[in-house]
Fold these 4 entries.
Entry 1:
Amino acid sequence: MGASVGLLLGGLICWLQTTYGLVGMGLENAVVANYPVKMEAFDFLLVAALIVIVTLLISFRPASLASKSYSVTDL
């Protein structure tokens, strides 16, 4: 759930920056007035895949320790 909300908020912030230019460069003679942002679907898919991979890697050790601490005969 947190990953989905984070991806949606990230997309919303990028869209707002592209549309309304929330964060400016702070220079009067800059070529562009606002920081440029380019959203690509591949970036969102890559972040989602990395979230899944990191979550699986981080949860593997606690799950393996928990499976060793209980057995069917203990219940």
Entry 2:
Amino acid sequence: MENQINLTKSHIAAFVFAGGTSRRFGSNKALFEIDRRPMIELVAGNIGAAAERDPIFVGARDDLKIPQGDVLIGKREGTGPLGALCDALELTTSQIVLVAPCDTPFFSSESFSRLVARMNNVAAVVAVDSERQDNAHWLLSCWNADVCRKHLADQYDSGERAIHRAVSGLNVHFESFDERELRNINSRSDIE
């Protein structure tokens, strides 16, 4: 059984992962505008509202104009999502860590809050497609830093790079969401 959590907003940290190269998109997708706002700004607003604080941007490239918040370039920079998650968990003193990739502009602040609300007695809550339960979105998730920090770092240090394998042995809850809200934008055709 994982730790029972008495949550207040001060216990929540928010991180937006922005370290990808956007090869399939053709330009920096974080800056692509949806409703006249850069995608990364939409994600930052939604996750920040749920945590009631500005997010920290992990791995943000130099060409990003971060709307607000700090940038973390961690020791595992450039090694993929598990490395970014480990860096975020190590950085924070908050017990609860909300994370999102910069290319998920349709995941609402209410949905981030729903992830947080499901955090009692689990190590992590991960968004999953309600129609395809095998389609977990490991970076649209909420983590108990106290429970996961060492476990995931040990997995990373042993050579693991996939989050879905690194969580082996942890109590993970999968929370269902509509596929439209979970969409990540990897190419311009994903917008249409």
Entry 3:
Amino acid sequence: MKTLLVVYHSMTGGTLQMANAAVAGAAREPALRVRLLHAPEAQAEDMLEAAGYLFASPENLASMAGLMKDFFDRCYYPVLDRVNGRPYATLVCAGSDGQGAVRQIDRIATGLRLRRVAPSLVVCTQAQSPQEIAREKKIGEGDLARCRDLGAALAAGIALGIY
């Protein structure tokens, strides 16, 4: 059975809510196994065993979260040239536009020769003050539905061999 690996990091809960929604959407695909791993737990072996990936990160200081970068740092060379062409998509929970985190993940995925199969999904929380940035996030149902749809589409594409 093929596996979709969802790797995430979240400090205030927003990205985790998005990742869980995507996992719920992907879990509708009976011919696919879905694994959700926190970035510090994810290893190169997990990437090698997966047929596709969903990377979920908050944007911190116009960058992906440090623990997501750590995941890529640990896994990059062990999987290089062994995951070529595999599909991926990205979720970003951001206080503003999220494009810094998207660019970083896309740059790393390009180096790994992964294939982006959907536009990056960015949810903007508008958190700009220190208090708003640090508070627990609540992602709206409309945005969670978009995450579920992305997870379902990615899972169906992998299960059907489209990607």
Entry 4:
Amino acid sequence: MNTFEKVANLEGYSYVAGIDEAGRGPLAGPVVAAAVIFPPNYKNPAINDSKKLSCRKREILYNIIYIDAIAIGVGVIDSEIIDKVNILQATFIAMREAVRDLSFYPDYLLIDGLHRLQVEIPQKPLVKGDALSVSIAGASIIAKVARDRIMEMYHRQYPHYNFQRNKGYGTKEHCRAIEEFGICKIHRKSFTVKNKPMPQLSLDLFKINERKN
């Protein structure tokens, strides 16, 4: 899991940052990206693609990564910007913000996916990078846990949608809540439910939610 980091180190790069995101697919909430720089030759066989880990395991590893990493950066882009620029561009913005948030500026990037970032740093995109690179896998865990915590916060503001459980994804329960209550402030209006545009927020529910905020 650290082969790509080792290659970059051998090429003279000292601070290799793995970058990944969480939250491209949900109907509500932000997209969150993380950047993680581990020490050279860092190994932790427990660190893996966040999607393959239980919630409890992610929380444990989240704390371990914060202890072991040289630097961690996080970028959060909300639903309003997602609707303005589209989810792919919002993801790129979140990734760039995560890089800027690092306390040590990286000299090389390993990025999960197909695309390069528009930053003046040498970089390598890796398809399924969260299964190939410990730095990207670490970033996937940080991004996932950070986003889950944000959605749990939103659950307290908008309990009708049960964000604590579905994290904004289009589960049957979440879709039924949208059909019943309409959408709230953190729903992505540019997304669709069952191939139909998002229902508009009912005025009564909007007033209820505003009083709770």
